[in-house]
Specification:
Helix 4 packs antiparallel against helix 5. The protein is elongated. The chain contains five helices and no strands. The chain has one domain. It has about 140 residues and is mainly α.
Amino acid sequence: MKNQIASIGIVWLERRVYRTLLVAAGGLVGSVARYWLAGWTQQWTGSAFPVGTLVVNLLGSFIVGLVMTFSLERGLISPEVRFLLGTGFCGGFTTMSTFSYETMALVQYGGDTTGAVANIAITLVGCLAAVWLGNLTGRIV
């Protein structure tokens, strides 16, 4: 009985460690992808508005909607891939903390209350729409 309980505990621990490593690997790639995509987008647009962060959050929202639908509704990807892409990659890729800071900075340092409110509205509506589109795409594909 003790050996059986110990075996269950080891299997549980191995699965948790494996999934933790998947989340870490996905987060590493997602963070680097955010850095490059947001920076490139911001430089390309030359805008004071945080377009890079907006693009990253919209794309990340779409990806998480797609991943969750493929995994939970359609069974097309395993829980491990869901952890890698949903929790790991999208967790490292999307940027709520950066979004919050940049929105505050628009007001605090630029006096741009209209831009801050627009950033909140566009991000909220856009990310919800992107999750919905990812979900819809996951059902169609």
